[in-house]
Amino acid sequence: MRRWVQQMRETIFKKILQNVRRRREDTATTDPNLKVTSIGILFDGTLPEDRQVLDRLVQQLRQSSNQVLVLGYIDNYSIATTYPFKHFYKKHVNWFYVPKHPDIDKFSRIHYDILMNLGRPDQFTLHYIAKSALASFKVGPHYPGIEIYDVMVRAPQEHDLDEFIDNVKRLLKNIQYRND
User: Fold this and answer.
1) Which positions ≥6 away from 45 have C-beta within 8 Å?
2) Range of the domain at 92
């Protein structure tokens, strides 16, 4: 019975996601002279080891003179006391995986050159935020029935953020190389 309910929630979420419109200015550009200056990152900050991986990535990106904004989902309120990035909790997400929080609204209104969803493929809330966010180029995990990214990256079976970030970096370098 529980699996049936989960499938129903997922189906309804996909219908809701179809109604979120992507703006014309949010379409991927093939301009070879595009200089990336702003990067938005969505991720699941529930596991401490994932937060450490993300901290290293953000430091690398900021060293390249990029403005990097991060929004994290945290499953457990008690672990967020020392969390350095904007975040929201499970209580901010409704039954259909649609989030409501002021930090999400702020994050979605800023225009990014690249938006990266580094969450697990089955984290529907992050897909919703990614679809509603303003970004010229969106990268995220592949999930059947959700095709909202310009580049979808196959995530490892066991969620390994290091490996997933490496896959994203490799893909972005290949795209940049082709545009040169």
Assistant:
1) 51, 54, 72, 73, 74, 80, 83, 85, 87
2) 2-179
Question: Rounded distance, CA 62 to CA 15, Å?
Answer: 36
Q: Which run of H or of E encompasses 70?
A: strand 67-74
The Cα 124–Cα 44 span in angstroms is: 11
* Total number of domains in the chain: 1
Tell me: the pLDDT tens digits for 74-118?
887 766 666 788 999 889 999 999 999 999 999 999 999 899 999
pTM recorded for the entire structure: 0.84
Nearest-angstrom CA–CA distance, 104 and 101? 5
Task: Say which CATH number the domain at 92 has.
Answer: 3.40.50
Are 111 and 23 in contact, with CB atoms under 8 Å apart?
A: no
